[in-house]
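Dear colleagues,

As part of the handover before I leave the project, I'm documenting each prediction I ran so the next person doesn't have to rerun anything. This entry is a single chain, and its sequence is reproduced below.
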Amino acid sequence: MDGRDQPQAIHSPGLPLDQAQGRTVISDNAVAKVVGVAARGVAGVHALGSGASRSIGAIRDVVGATDLTQGVRVEVGESQVAVDLVLVAIYGYPLQQLADAVRAAVYGAVEGLVGRDVIEVNIEITDVFIPSAEPERQQPRTKLSERLGAPVRPAAPNPSAAPVGHEKGQP
């Protein structure tokens, strides 16, 4: 392409080119969501946020109102963004490498989707999730007699029910 196929911007004398067609404002919340989605997409990130915010986030998840900005704080300027992230890592992922991967994902997402330069991404890893240490969901407990191997006493017969395999009126 030689540039002739590109649309030409209409430029009014005296106005900077970026304001000639209007001004774009991108809110902190929009940028924080982009950051949150990018960080959660990195293998080794278990969750974003501190313990208290994750508890509140779990309640929001149940009612279908997931907060994608949990654990994310951004400062959005005219052309730059600074990011602070709080996250929980999954055990087995080297923490510094995980932080570097999250940082790269955030840089890529903000610069690619938001169109602003990222000046810094500060990451605080507050915990490590160990899957085997999490309590498994409790299975229904068996009866004590079954656990001890004692013979199970049959339930009291229901006089209105016919015995299994027999028709009414037959022995």
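The radius of gyration is 30 Å. Residues 95-114 form the longest helix (20 residues).

All the best with the project,
I.
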